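Page 37, top half.
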Amino acid sequence: MSMSSDSEENGRKAIRMIYEASERGAQIVCLPELFTTLYFPREEKIDASGLAETIPGKTTEILSKAAKEKNVVVVGGSIFEKEGGKFYNTSVVFDETGKIIGKYRKMHIPHDPLFYEKDYFEESKDGFKVFHTKYCTIGVLICYDQWFPEAARINALMGADLIFYPTAIGIPDGNAQEEGNWREAWTIVQRGHAVANSLVVAVVNRAGKEGNMNFFGGSFVSDQFGKILSEGGDKEKIIIAEIDLNLFKHVREGWRFFYNRRPESYKKLVENIRK
């Protein structure tokens, strides 16, 4: 999905796309990160508080109505949430009756050139969440969370069959990608989460140019062994994938990644090495 500066139009577009996805057979629909606004963290320390909203609020109201009318589970991408004097990057999940079944606040907050998110969002203290729907148990992680294997593993240990990653990632004008191809690395790491955790991964990115940022789209769905089932290009598009939930049994039983874990030897993982 691509966004404009008109939040109401972004909302209307999101609803149209939810309806179309449903009419094409989708049972669970996910939107991108911060889908109601332009990606304002491209700028350092601007006052974006006027873009924030409460949960419940106007956006959750229209998403709830769409979920109920089309009888679909909706992962509401993420919105800029305000609660008291704090602000979060938050995904809200609705069941097919339109009921809010929970929300997840982004845990890992980046702070890099053109991704100045620490200027705007608190790190969540609420932990990771999974949501039980009539179709399967879903986890939701948001954008930068996708680079952390611990987040995907914890979702799997909590029972997720499927992880959605609402995302806003792109390449700034003039960036030489000296490390290598960003989009390729982004795809590889998330397909790796799917294999290592025997679950489906669905990644939903922004598209379009916003200022000097080129959001590359590339949304995709990977099965439990890393096979891409459906993939979008760099333009706005609805992608649909049919998933086989039973495949996880073959991967998990056959490769036994979970049975052969050695949690007692993983203490290093919880040491804080921040600088």
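Page 37, bottom half:
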Amino acid sequence: MAKGKLFIISAPSGAGKSTVLSRVMAQLPGVAFSVSHTTRMPRKGEQDGREYHFVDRTTFTEMIEQGNFLEYADVHGNYYGTSRLAVQEQLEQGLDVILDIDVQGAKIIRDAKEMDAVFVFLTPPDLTELERRLRGRGLDSDETIVQRLKNAHTELRSLGDFDYLIVNEELDEAVRMFESVILAERAKNHRHFTGKDIQTKVFVV
């Protein structure tokens, strides 16, 4: 079985990343989502093991000490981390794995060069639109929104480190673009067939 590809997607909070990912996951076969661990509290509607594995700081610290994370970072005062074993198992199953992490985590994986990965940055059209979206979802206080906007300004400086940039101005277009990135990488890597397989499929009817 051919090994899958790891796709790292980063975005400022409120850019619409969760919506884009849910659409891509529903429409494109052979794609899996890597569920990260976090110490933050679940938001309304979130379920443990679906959006995140929710753990306390003591448990998270123990996992760090045991070397369980491919990457981890402190984001907005909470820890987020990616299980190395979980990602490896999904890739070995031939699945393309989407990893939703911030720019800190993306840099850790990029610099470590432990896994071959494709890096995608999703951004809103501008910071004014980002603020509108953050306020519209009604999840954060004014103080938190101000902090998220400051963080977004910093994160946007990392655009040059990513392989692809998707501007989420129109949702359907952003979804199509991310699907196109995945399909292009599949074609580029010729993962699904050997040369003999291709000849058989083309010439035997």
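Margin note: The domain at 6-189 is CATH 3.40.50.300 (Rossmann fold).
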